[in-house]
Specification:
This protein is of the alpha+beta class. It contains 8 helices and 7 strands. It folds into 2 domains: 3-95, Nuclear Transport Factor 2, Chain: A, CATH 3.10.450; 103-214, no CATH class. It has helices spanning 16-29, 38-47, 54-58, 91-95, 103-124, 153-160, 182-195, 203-214; strands spanning 62-69, 75-81, 86-89, 143-147, 173-174, 178-179, 198-202. The protein has a 3-stranded antiparallel sheet with strand order 1-2-3. The longest helix is centred in the middle third of the chain and has 22 residues, at 103-124. The structure holds zinc ion (ZN).
């Protein structure tokens, strides 16, 4: 079943992968600033209670949902509330079905989101679409931007802010989506951009590298 056409389904046990796919199909289907159709809004409203912070996201009530651009230049879905306020809502968290992310997960996720424009700019600046490890032809859709060992993404975060300092309210990542303070994100992005060594890898190489690091 095509997730974009699933507005009338009464199936409630939607798998995380399906929810993620539905979210990206919405981002493909609509233009920035455009509101979801009544049918798609219906699907969204049935999915929303699965979000761990659904009540906070809803606020005084949902007037509609539109595609927008968040503070870090990412396309995402925004809830437009009845009082006119807007808030981002990540389908990733809906897919988790009510499991609240730990503060550490929120922190790491906000770091990843903050670094995305930089990794995307790196990919867009590539002159040759070949894996920088094995040399295999690797077009845009077939590769991943890798944080080269030993400056993995994890070590890059740890080098920026040790665990014991992450509980400060300043560094709180709100609902696992982005930092509550924009300057914190800009600070991390500067650290990321001056520290990271990025590589363009084919998917098998990227998988191997990640496995090597996890051990
Ligand atoms: Zn490769």
């Amino acid at each position: 079943m095509n997730p974009a056409n699933a507005g009338n389904t009464h199936e409630l046990d939607w798998k995380p992968a399906w929810v993620m796919k539905w979210g990206s199909s919405m981002l493909q289907k609509y233009a920035v600033g455009e509101r979801l159709s009544a049918e798609d809004l219906g699907t969204f409203l049935r999915l929303l209670p699965r979000h761990h912070a659904a009540a906070e996201k809803e606020g005084p009530g949902v007037a509609g949902v539109e595609k927008g651009v968040n503070s870090w230049s990412q396309h995402c879905l925004f809830i437009v509330r009845v009082d006119g306020s807007v808030v981002t809502v990540g389908t990733k968290w809906i897919a988790r079905k009510g499991t609240p992310p730990s503060p550490h997960e929120c922190f790491a996720y906000a770091c990843r989101e903050t670094a995305k424009p930089s990794t995307r700019a790196f990919r867009d600046s590539l002159g040759a679409w070949a894996c920088q490890l094995c040399g295999a032809p690797t077009p845009r859709s077939a590769g991943e931007v890798d944080h080269a060992h030993p400056i993995t993404f994890k070590s890059l975060i740890d080098g920026w802010l040790p665990h014991e300092r992450r509980d400060s309210a300043l560094f709180t990542a709100v609902w696992g989506e982005e930092f509550s303070e924009r300057w914190v994100a800009e600070w991390f992005r500067r650290h990321h951009d001056s520290t990271a060594r990025l590589r363009w890898l084919c998917k098998p190489c990227h998988k191997n590298e990640s496995r090597r690091i996890d051990r």
